[in-house]
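Contributing: when you submit paired examples, paste them exactly as shown. First protein:
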Amino acid sequence: MNDSTPITPAWIAVDWGTTNLRAWAMGAGGRVLAEAQSDEGMSKLSRDGFEPALLRLISPWLGAGRTPVVACGMVGSRQGWCEAPYRVVPCTPLDPAGQVLAPSTDPRIEVRIAPGLKQASPADVMRGEETQIAGALRLMPQYDGVFCLPGTHSKWVHVSAGEVVSFQTFMTGEMFALLSEASVLRHAMGGEGWDDAAFDAAVSDAISRPERIAARLFTLRAESLIAGLGTAAAKARLSGLLIGIELAAALPYWLGQRVTLIGAEKLSALYARALAAQGVTAETLPATGCTLAGLQSLTLAEVAK
């Protein structure tokens, strides 16, 4: 499409996280007409900054009429545009009636926010992943099994009969970032290299002896100092150790279950590799495709009213 060609979306999909804002101009049948993103995530905005941030991104797509905007993610948190109260599991991942209308002053938009999910015991919450799960269920009807959503805060989610039965969150991605960038281990990391064998060995080590994780982490520092451990192997081992202890703790979710990964391609590939070593062949779905399919299910529900 030529840059000068006007874009007239039927609706606009928004995934608003802690650090980033992504938007898609959507046409009939779920076709993506255009997309845009910015670094104006929830953490950078005050309550009155959300509407201006959104308009900076989507104004070129707005016409004289009112365009529906359907949003998910941290935009609905207590620190977001307006709070969309959590729904309690077990429940369907999304409920059109649970959407919250965000306060806006621009007559060209009507913004609705999808709520997240919460679990009482063990206490857990999610925002944004529920939309990906809803999208995955549209792409894989009648799915019964487990979804794993790798990321900063990885989620393992048991789904049955179209409902989220239970879930558990692991801070694996955040721990990797903190340890590799802000701990003593940062001196052993760096560069773009990777070592598959080191990753595989670390996953196996962590799954078999997860209680040794604190000691095994410091070994990365010691080996880089006295045994010539390279940065590629160190980074792969750190990733393998952290994913390994996650798999050890999430064993009840994946052992003997159908598992589908929803996430970024490279990270999902690492989880698939780690699971394959345990005899589990995981299916994969793209995170963006699931997000859009989930948000579209809300728009279809609105039209059907």
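Second protein:
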Amino acid sequence: MVILVRRKSLFRIAVFLLVIFFLTGSSLLFFVRTDMVNATEKEQDIEQDNHLIKWVDFNVTYEALDYAIKLDVKYHDSETPMSFINLLAYIAAKNGNNFKGFKTGHLDLVADQIKAGKTMEELTENLKYYDYYHESFTAALSGLVGTYEIEVQDQATQIGKKWERKYGIKAFSPFAKGYYYNDFDDFGVSRSYGFTRRHLGHDMMGSIGTPIIAVEGGTVEALGWNQYGGWRIGIRSHDTKRYYYYAHLRKDFPYNKSLKVGSAVNPGDVIGYLGRTGYSLKENVNNIRQAHLHIGLQLVFDESQKECNNEIWINIYPIIRLLYRHKSEVVKDPETKEYSRVYNIREIIEE
């Protein structure tokens, strides 16, 4: 009888131990698998972060940008089309991003090879940093050129308008047609208000009330007062890669009254009016000595870069020079005192 009891006890103990082992083993296996999944996700995050562009030294000159676009437009409908972004990325990868000695002949050589049947993949096969420059320049410049339809005056009637389809520069100068400004390449110069820092934009000196134009189409992300920029507007491009920052707008009447955060704008739309607000915690204060527009261009490869300590702002000066001859014509409404564009535009997304 005693032996029977011991055997039952041993059996129960054995069953109990097996259950504990099973549960512990399952839990251990679960945690091991969880740790493996977490480790894989972390590795993927690290890999993605390592491939994320964190700095862009945009050295493309106006001369290089202008000529590359002319080649793009010239050969757009030919058997050998060539992207101006591809051409500029090739030059940057070939010459170490040094555009100081740029000559149009550098791009002509590339264009001749493409016309002779060479593909961009073949031309860039041994260029280590071509992909980096291509991604960087695509983020910075892809909103400048494309197919669009724009209203033009109907020459037959001289009173009506008609839509005309075009391929070329579809962005606009931030100053409306007929309004002039003075500027120079001031990106990176020192600023001292609040703290010593670099100027991460471009200043365009003009007259108070000058209609300010959306360079590119997109969505209004910021609208209101900023201690440094005064009344300002922030517009994000449709592909989300570019954030245009327009600052120091007019006191009392800074914006087009139809705009709000979330509003869609087209390239060439009137978005606000030049002023000299800013440098104050108090709203609607003129603390800028000379009336001017501050315009900045931020590149955003990932949303974590939008507002952080390592934002990517590039020199927009060569782009502003390019757009000098491409301005939006505007007209004033005598009742509302608001300006609006004369000729509308429709962007065409080509497959």
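If you have annotations for the second protein, write them as plain sentences, like these:
Residues 3 and 9 are 10 Å apart (CA to CA).
The radius of gyration is 29 Å.
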